[in-house]
Amino acid sequence: MPRRVTTVTGVDEQKGQQHMNARRRRTTTLVGAIAAMSLLAAPAVAQDGPQWPMTPGDAQGSNQSTVEGPDDPGLKWHVDFEQVETDFAPDGYGSIHRNYFVISEDGTLVLLASNNDRQYENSARFARELIGVDPDDGEVLWQVDNASPRSSSRCAPAIDDQDRIWIETRPDGGDRVLSAHDPADGSELTSIEAESPRCSDHLLIDGDHLVSASSGNLEDFRILDISGDDPTEVSVGLEVEGGDDLVNHGNSPSWAVMADGSLYTAVEIVDEDGDTERLDIVEVDLATGDVVNQREAPTPNGSDSADFSRLHLALDAGTDTLLVATDSGEPYVAGLDTGDLIQSWIDTRLNDNVNDLALGDGTVLFQPGSRTSLGGPDTVALATADGALQYSDGIASGSSLLTNPDGSGYGMDRGEGDTRNQLIARFDAGGQVQWQIPPERIVQQVDGIDERDDLNMGNRFARIEFPAIDADGTLYAVSRGGSSEGMLAIDNSGGLSEPIDVSFPDVDPDSTHAANIEELARRGITQGDADGNYNPNGPVPREQFATFLVRALGIEAIEGTSRFDDVQVGSTHAANIEAAAEAGITRGTTETEFSPRREITRAEVASLLARAFDLEGIEGTTRFDDVEVGSTHAANIEAVAEAGITEGDGTGNFNPDTRLNRAQMASLLIRALDAVDG
Fold first, then answer.
1. DSSP label of 14
2. Nearest-angstrom CA–CA distance, 63 and 466
3. pLDDT digits (tens, 9 = 90+) for 608-621
4. Residue with more model confidence, 272 or 133
5. Across 26-170, where does the E strand assignment appear?
6. Mean pLDDT along residues 191-197
7. Contact in structure between 423 and 412 (CB atoms under 8 Å)
């Protein structure tokens, strides 16, 4: 089967030239000291069902991965689908879209694409097919014909707990069916007759049920029990008093969300004359098809819900919060308690389009204005539980956001200078960009490509979307619209990214510790003081070092309690001190005191680093003339030196009782992170 797939060349050479890459890696295997911390709460993940990605099978509409994507990105492969040649699509494929993309349990990428060799009858549109793509190299493995039976429709695939891919098809031009396919070869495993007038569905799957509502009319709402080998009907027709059509149905993947045996969707309620009275949020029991809860959609400032033509839904299972957003009428984002559908908060800073709600760890992210090829407004993050503002100056993305479990994630950043020059970027849990991937870096690593346009990833990279992160942590990026049909697979092998320059006016760029101070800021461990300075010669109180260390390790702060009498609950560093103590990193200066404001010594830092990074103390020897064997910190000082984190002062001394300054602290901390990261 002839095919043309561009592959990566010279990755090791490229990686070797990027001498700062190791410094940009976050520590993901934070040694035994952290791995053993069952006491540290894991980030809330959006669902307990099949592994990410679930878009559009993501029954909670979260745009959130259950697996963290690359933090030191490298190019695994690039494919221009228009240039792919197969027996069943000799002219290649087009119209790849993130909303029509799932990944099977064995890693096969399953997506909807148009076959550039086939057109629908009596239409200028190319026929859409379901294709399987090899995650190792991007090769197209198989195709299911007529996966979108009408030229005006865009059926979306979904994956169930048995690793079957569901889609509406029209086998051999006959009657339309909802069919399940084997991701290994695309073969049909089971099917049921499709009853709707046309397919424009984003199928939803949660546990044992598949939900379909192809026309948007309540009479076409279907619940199928797919727990066995063959699907069976649970409900045909959704009984909603006064209900007419589903709101925002069709090509939107957020027309409904599902969890814990319930489905939540929005329904238009009409009067006897057929005029819209209001929009209601309804909860449907998937086992019976019964409506078990129904309330009017939230509205800001006493406005009329009938004024809202679209509602977008997402569900944060970790906080039992249903997120509702609209970009019509008076735009808003609101949180509802899933138990009673009563509004718990509403935020009206949304002033235009809803640009893809995304969930982080207890947060909902959105961009409060129009998404254009020049980017969008700054991302806003709110706490899903109460709507509290987390940040409002996050990445300004011209494309969809895709988040890691902790709320960090990926988008397209405008970068500096030319605002049309979109860059693939990773942002931290505070919304700030950590690194960017210039298109030229990708061009350098793809065989046979000289210019970015040859990648076929969109004009100036302005329309790239992120459909998924797979179980191996590979991030997938696809172009959107027009004739641009490229796909990137970005893994953690390094060599692609450029760090965001972080500089402090009071740090000499040529000084010994400057690079490590910048790296500390780049990793989000410090932001400097209120004036934008770092104060490199300033002292490091014990409480401050505890905070720096907790941030560096990614440990969750522990609010509302303190084991030390001299640490006040609610004070700036109290939650981080408690987290460090709970993790066994610090023991205080006595059983009841931490001495938070006392400047930390080099010996104390050595012991804290040794405990934090699980470095076994080396007893009975010392390489430093001023460190006495058997003294309190001697074994840890030797362990830290053996790991290459410190070399002492260069004269044979360690100066254990000397107070550390902030510049020295930055270098020790970054060296420790790099040493553990290998």
1. H
2. 9
3. 999 998 899 999 99
4. 133
5. 74-80, 93-94, 101-103, 109-119, 126-133, 140-144, 158-159, 165-169
6. 76
7. yes
Q: In the numeric block, which tokens belong to residue 521?
A: 């800021």
- Please tell me the predicted confidence (pLDDT) of residue 150: 54
d(CA 34, CA 613): 8
CB 394 within 8 Å of CB 379: yes
Please say whether the beta carbons of 194 and 177 come within 8 A: yes
Q: H or E segment at 578?
A: helix 574-582
Please compute the mean of the pLDDT values over residues 487-512 and round it to a whole number: 85
Match 């949020």 to its residue by tokens: 281
Mean pLDDT across the stretch 26-32? 30
CA nearest to 101, candidates 93, 91, 111:
111
Question: 112 and 147 in contact (C-beta within 8 Å)?
Answer: yes
CA distance 112 to 159: 13
395 - beta bridge partners?
Answer: none
- State the amino acid at position 629 in one-letter form: V
Spatial distance between the Cα atoms of 213 and 235, rounded to a whole number of angstroms = 11
C-alpha 520/C-alpha 525 separation (Å) is 5
Report the residue count for the chain: 678
Q: Count other Cβ atoms within 10 Å, centred on residue 501.
A: 9
Place of tokens 């000289």: 450
Q: Residue 438 carries which side chain, given as an amino acid letter?
A: P
pLDDT digit string (tens) for 315-346? 998 899 999 988 777 889 999 999 999 999 99
Position 246 pLDDT exceeds 90:
no
Closest CA to 544 of 659, 429, 427: 659
DSSP string, 275-304: -EEEEEEEEEETTT--EEEEEEPP-STT--
What number of other Cβ atoms are within 10 A of residue 510's Cβ?
6
> How does pLDDT run across 397-409, given as a tens digit for each residue?
655 789 998 889 9
Amino acid in the structure at residue 231: P
Is residue 20 packed enough to be buried (19+ CB in 10 Å), middle (13-18) or exposed (0-12)?
middle
This prediction has a pTM of 0.70
Residue 566 burial (C-beta neighbours within 10 Å; 0-12, 13-18, 19+): middle
**Of 479, 465, 461, the residue nearest 423 (C-alpha):** 461
**Count of H helices and E strands in the chain?**
10, 35
221: exposed, middle or buried (Cβ count in 10 Å: 0-12, 13-18, 19+): buried
3-state DSSP helix/strand/coil % of the chain, to nearest 5: 15, 30, 55
Which phi and psi (to 5°) does residue 453 adopt? -60, -25
Residue 546 phi/psi, 5° resolution?
-60, -40
Closest CA to 359 of 313, 398, 425, 310: 313
Q: Which two tokens stand for residue 4?
A: 């043309």
With a pLDDT cut of 70, the percent of the chain lying above it is 81
Is residue 313 within 8 A of residue 256, CB to CB? The reply is yes
- Which secondary structure element, helix H or strand E, spans residue 264, and what is its range? strand 262-270
Q: Which two tokens stand for residue 631?
A: 């003294």
